[in-house]
Amino acid sequence: MLRLAADSGRVDVLVVGGGIAGLQAALDLADQGLKVLICEQQASIGGHMIELSKVFPTLDCASCITTPKMSAAAHHPNIEILTSTVVDGIEPLHAGHRVRVTRRPTYVNNDKCIGCRLCEYACDTECVDPFDASLGATRAIAVPFTNAIPQKAVLNPDACGTCGTCARVCPTGAIEFDQQPETLEIEAGAVVLASGFALNAMTVKPQYNAARSRNIISALTMERLLAPHGPYGRVLRPSDGKIPGSIAFVQCAGSRDASIGVPYCSRVCCMYAIKQAMLLSGALPIADITIYFMDIRAFGKGYESFYQNAKAMGINFVRGKVARIVPAEDGDLLLHVERTEEGIGAIEPVRHDLVVLAQGMIPEWHAEACTPVHPGPDGFVAASSLTSPTATSVPGIFVAGAAAGPKDIVDTIAEAGAAAMQVTRWLRQEQQRPVEALV
Amino acid sequence: MIRDVDPALMQKIRRYGKGGRLQVESCFQCGNCTAVCPLAQDSAGFPRRVIRMAQVGMERELLASEDLWRCYACGECTATCPRAADPAEFMAAARSYAISRYDFTGLASLASRSVLGNLLVFAGLSLFFALLLLSRATPSSAHLPFFDFVPGEWVHAIGVALFVVVGLSMVAGLASMILRFLSERRREGVPLRAGALPAAMASAILEALSHQRFRQCNAEEPAPAAQPWYLRPWVVHLSVMGGFLAMLLATTLDYLLKPIGSPVPPWYPMRVLGAAGGLICLYGLAIMLFRAEPEDEAHWRKRTFAEWFFPVLLAVTVLTGLSAEILVYLPMTPAGHAVFIVHVVLAMDLVAMLPLTRFAHVLYRPLALALFAWRHAPERQAAAAEA
Predict the structure, then answer these.
(1) Whole domain around residue B17: which residue ranges?
(2) Which of A212, A259, A319 sits opposite B82 (nearest CB)?
(3) Which of A158, A195, A274, A316 is most buried by a 10 A CB count?
(4) Which residue out of B32, B36, B299 would a mutagenesis test of the A interface target, given it has the greatest number of A Cβ atoms within 10 Å?
(5) Closest residue in chain B to residue A204, using alpha carbons only
(6) Which of A256, A322, A338 sits opposite B44 (nearest CB)?
């Protein structure tokens, strides 16, 4: 692996974010001979995609697609990866950009750690596992997840009791309880923003009472329940471990809703709900599965037939926005919804025992706070024009994937490749620019 | 089935709400408003279906819809509307539109479409009543009791004439609503039995007096920010309505039982009833007008002119009336005469504007509730039998 950042402080391209967008852009750039640095805020690259069970509309295993990309980036001679690293600021220079980054302490020296996990096995302090949507448990010092890259242990200072067991069992002496944040300044010819998305809070609509029931779950939690190596290894509802017999998907639970300030469509929820419904009907063959939707937006290649297949499989599609979710005594949930396609009548609350909310996609990182790029009205990084979707308002800073707006994996990968193309073109133009123009 | 549609219906209704800035055409029929409304659970008849009628121009169905009046405008639909389409304000605008269409004079349309029209009708009526009263006034009579300054018989004659005119026009309006309801239900083939009518009317009167349904507004989980009982919308509305009815009763009994202008002591029962009603009514009006709305709701709870015109008119009428109650025990002055004149003119305005403004809901709403109960009587009986 390269050591550009620490040794020379200069890279050709700095990629903010090591999810599928950042990895694809980095690989496309590095394959052309450019030196690339990926800054990832988590302890492992892979982004949201490595959390997923399967991908639509092919039902391919998400890990099986993401892990090779992660591995290829990690072993690429032209790519360096800094994990647990946040970008504090990007400042345009005459040629290129000065990027300030902070490496957060993991209390483990990555140069010494060999990923043997002896510390993890020895640690007797257990804590919730954020990778498994806080449903499973992990140790206070652990490799983030099975297929994490890099395979380096990370110590959770909130859970750790500093008993010192890990330091005693570590064969390479990699545990450093006194590690401090470290700030680096890196000069990059160009920057690609691939900082991805976050989901808005489950409690953003108080009428859904998500704070009052553990059986109202996020779609990403459902991904973990469906993943073969998920927290329970099967689909159980969190409150009491019951096998759910009736599952509801509440679409547009955090987007396309002006009352919570997210009027735009998150673009992936219809499709992943259909995908999860299909996977659930495999995992729980006798369960009733209902998707409450306003419109099904199945616009990509093969998406509409995926939707029609789901209908043919017996998944219920009910048109109507769920207005209220009321927890019942036994952990079940009562959904208030008008069945707008089924004529007039009383509104009987519908009982389900597990509810999945399709939260809205919002920007993970607000680049405008520390870089000169402009956000669009939706808060995501704005493209400079319709014909240059990967260029931002600042020359030399490009954007790819969900950092530019809600996007599915297929579009994200295509856009990352496009961003890589624009970066090489821009760097070549810069090199050919007459010297006096720079002064 | 062939239906007549009016493609301009939405444009017409828009003029009755929010000064024409109503954005209800952005509604995409998701049904959130109906599902979130505690009052719509039994029929799913509003707000979405009424919005749909307006969007596609089904004017006949809209004007025959008793569901229009089953909404108490708590605003929860607007607070949660994904499209910021403001269903609550739309329902209010559609009711104003219906009032204008039930009214045959065209004055209601003038009074509720714009602030200017409202003020014009108000000023015209005030001027008319003031001139009418003063035409029989005794000049330079500063120290005369009021009913000697303007003859009591004359005041009463105008009042009776006004009640007859307004009464007839309200009867016409109510008849218009009933006829539209009957013809539409016949088209739909809804069976209506005359035998179920008394029970339906009784249920509507019970609701008007008890506000049983109104209490359900905003009562669903999650519980709204704790509100003391005396600030809850239904209590506030009940105090305005109850106070108003008490004053109306006191005035009517006074007129029927007491010789005009005869002096009575302050503890005379009608006087006590009127004063108590006035104070209760004022309390409700004060809360209605001055209650600070929760900050997160401020963006949609901007009061429109039509919303505060009637409470302000009523409040000024009550205030001048209460002042007059006190003034009769003091030596009469020209200022006292002015207060009396203003009070009588405003009270007459209030009655005259009954069929023309949102105030008309006092008669249309109970009727609509009775019609709703009548229409759904068979289902209710079946449900009761089953239980």
Answers:
(1) 9-103
(2) A259
(3) A195
(4) B32
(5) B80
(6) A338
- B322 and B288 in one domain? yes
C-alpha atoms less than 13 angstroms from C-alpha of B182 in its C-beta half-sphere: 9
* B81 contact residues in A (CB cutoff 8 A): 258-259
Strands (E) in A373-421, as ranges, are 397-399
CA distance to A80, A371, A431, per residue, from A90 (Å): 19, 5, 21
Mark which of B71, B103, B135 sits at the end of a domain: B103
Token pair belonging to A153: 């242990």
Give the pLDDT of chain B (387 residues) as one tens digit per residue.
678 899 999 999 988 877 667 888 899 999 999 999 999 988 888 999 999 999 999 999 999 999 999 999 888 899 999 999 999 999 999 999 999 999 988 889 888 888 899 999 999 999 999 999 989 888 766 677 778 888 888 998 999 999 999 999 999 999 999 999 999 999 989 889 999 999 999 999 999 999 999 988 877 666 656 678 888 889 999 999 999 999 999 989 988 888 877 778 888 888 899 999 999 999 999 998 887 665 545 444 566 777 788 899 999 999 999 998 888 888 877 888 889 899 999 999 999 999 988 889 999 999 999 999 999 998 888 888 887
User: Is B112 part of the contact surface with chain A (CB cutoff 8 Å)?
Assistant: no
Query: A185 by DSSP, 3-state: which?
Result: strand
Contacts of A213 in chain B (CB under 8 A): none
Question: Does B96 share its domain with B72?
Answer: yes
CA separation for the pair A438, A94 (Å, rounded): 6
Q: Are strands A333-337 and A322-327 parallel, antiparallel or unpaired?
A: antiparallel
A4-104+181-196+364-432 maps to which CATH number? 3.50.50.60
DSSP string computed for B110-123: HHHH-HHHHHHHHH
Angle among Cα A139, A141, A145 to the nearest 5 degrees reads: 70
Q: Does any CB of chain A come closer than 8 Å to the CB of residue B80?
A: yes
A108-177 CATH, one of 3.40.50.2300, 3.40.50.1860, 3.90.226.10, 3.30.70.20: 3.30.70.20
Query: Measured between CB atoms, does A256 come within 8 Å of chain B?
Result: yes
Q: In whole angstroms, give the CA distance from residue A221 to residue A236.
A: 11
- The span from the CA of A162 to the CA of A177, in Å, is 8
Q: B365: distance to nearest CA of chain A, Å?
A: 21
Closest Cα in chain A, distance from residue B4 (Å): 20
Which candidate from A209, A324, A345 shows the least CB-CB separation from B35? A324
- In this structure, the answer to whether residues B129 and B39 fall within a common structural domain is no
Per the CB < 8 A criterion, the answer to whether A291 and A314 are in contact is no
pTM: 0.92
Interface test with B, best of A292, A321, A342 (most B CBs within 10 A): A321
Nearest to A257 among B36, B42, B82 (CB): B82
Q: Do B30 and A340 touch (CB under 8 A)?
A: yes
In a domain, B384, yes or no: no
A336·B36 Cβ contact <8 A: yes
Do the beta carbons of residue A14 and residue A43 sit within 8 Å? no
Please answer yes or no on whether A338 and B48 come within 8 Å at the CB atom. Answer: yes
What pLDDT is attached to residue A1?
A: 52
- Beta-strand pair A182-193/A397-399: parallel
Distance to chain A for B372, nearest Cα, Å: 14
Instruction: Say yes or no: B16 and B149 in one domain.
Output: no
Q: Rounded mean pLDDT of chain A? A: 94
Helix, strand counts (H, E) of chain B? 17, 0
Do residue B202 and residue B114 come from a single domain? yes
* Portion 69-88 of A in contact with B at CB < 8 A: none
Cβ <8 Å between B221 and A209: yes
Last residue of a domain, one of B70, B103, B136: B103
Total count of domains within chain B = 2
Provide the CATH topology of domain A200-361. Answer: FAD/NAD(P)-binding domain (3.50.50)
